[in-house]
Sequence to fold (642 residues):
Amino acid sequence: MFFEGSEKKLEVVVNWSQEEGLSLRQLGDSYWARMVEACQAKILSKMSSPSCDAYLLSESSLFVWDDHFTMITCGQTTLVNAVRILFEKFSLEQIDSLIFERKNEYFPHRQTTDFYEDIGHLKKLMPGRAFRFGRAEDHHLFLFHLDKPFVPPPDDVTLEILMYDLQGESAAIFGSGQYDSKKICQLTGVDQIFAGFQIDDHVFEPCGYSLNALNQEKYYTIHVTPQEGSSYVSFETNFDVCQELPQTIGRVIEVFKPGSFDVVLFHPQRPLPFEVPGFELRSQSLQDLTCGYGVTFSHYESRRRVAEAAYEIKEWTSVRP
Amino acid sequence: MFFEGSEKKLEVVVNWSQEEGLSLRQLGDSYWARMVEACQAKILSKMSSPSCDAYLLSESSLFVWDDHFTMITCGQTTLVNAVRILFEKFSLEQIDSLIFERKNEYFPHRQTTDFYEDIGHLKKLMPGRAFRFGRAEDHHLFLFHLDKPFVPPPDDVTLEILMYDLQGESAAIFGSGQYDSKKICQLTGVDQIFAGFQIDDHVFEPCGYSLNALNQEKYYTIHVTPQEGSSYVSFETNFDVCQELPQTIGRVIEVFKPGSFDVVLFHPQRPLPFEVPGFELRSQSLQDLTCGYGVTFSHYESRRRVAEAAYEIKEWTSVRP
Fold:
């Protein structure tokens, strides 16, 4: 009942590789395994393209390129610990960009730290700025970034779609715990969001599903927490979707049919707000960060959600005291 | 920065008074002080009517009548502890009704327990049922009740208005920390929400405001947490407002001008959804409880809130690590 789907995310760009002719990928599995374990997760599998190593984790994913990496963890992991492991090998001068994100959680009391504590730890290691996108009492995203000028490449776009309250067939498919990964892909098409990607996926017990998809330097990743009452799916990609953003979002939400979803976009140029049929744009926060990215956080809600009965917490007898 | 305005609430009806010819009010200040202190709060002042003792607390309020009491606490208090003190004096047979509520919080990680842990404690003392009104990822109210048939009197109506994101003049007045209670009442009219009530109020350092109002067996109470980024006001009354519910709500939100608010209504007959000018009914949960009350939880949002810039967490350097 109590699996926290909401994720933390760490993105780091280093210049160490250019200086030394080295690549982050050469650090080897043991380094990344140590970083992952410091966050209370573990590596389940690995898939590689010529440009990227994609690790599927017990709690989400890690992608490593020559000069940058992206780590996403859910559950009760403490992702801020990864920064400590990073600083064992890298000096602040060797880090060009560091962004730490944390989404509002379903079960925040069960977390080891909250965002305010995390930025206390980060502040000891680097200068930085912290933001909340969205209102504190509603859907929101916390973001901390290293305060250092950085110019991202023009195609350095990241799209996150965070989906809540899954409806219809996909909720039943992912929630049943009865399908293997082949059948899930066949029924839902999660392996075909973009064409030409190789797939590494995992079905969790008693339920839950993770997918990494890789095509050269581009990835997409999907993590499904189907638990009733706290259902959640995240989709993330660095595929440059800015030209067809509404279409991409439409394709993803068609699979999961969420009651509401957030869109987080890191982009060189700020896109205009757009319509999603059947959904209402409830709020939008925009900020150009001094670390070179523009960030947009938007919350969409299904037009059909107004009245509902109260949700009875049937499992309450099994809660640890 | 980190004051948690969101409240827990405990309502208890006993039959001990009828049996023994005794009144809860005769238990005396020392008993109630002990109960309040068990929750990490303290009594600041007391005002009485012929039917009710109203205590203003360091964290919200306590109202005691002959056969029932209502305790509301905010901050990092552990209100579930009050039930332990209650059971030192009363047996389960002497308790006709017990309802424990908990609102979603701004800083849930800073709480001693979460609702799931609270119901673990309550379950050891009594049979009960637990509900969540509203979606887990949005505004919601947790409610636990003793599972025992109870017939509330026909006028046993409770209205709670929980207001978020204060706008305009009242936010400035309450947030400034520069006005005394007389001036606050004069500028905002919080002492005149209903006519003919005696008032006991308190201005907190560095900011914050609490008010108890009493007229015979009727009360209303207001608690203001004006901190920027997590501003919150609760209004609650047992005044029978069902005949003019929209007017009463309109009067209260006119004072505080929230960006959004929740309405919680305990009522013998379920009221119809109603319109509030300038606001949109975003969701509504209805449940008839087996303990005799119908409960409605509604969330309203200002129509003018869509676009906003990200909120920079300027105070992050002062956060405890």
Notes: Chain B has one domain: 8-318.
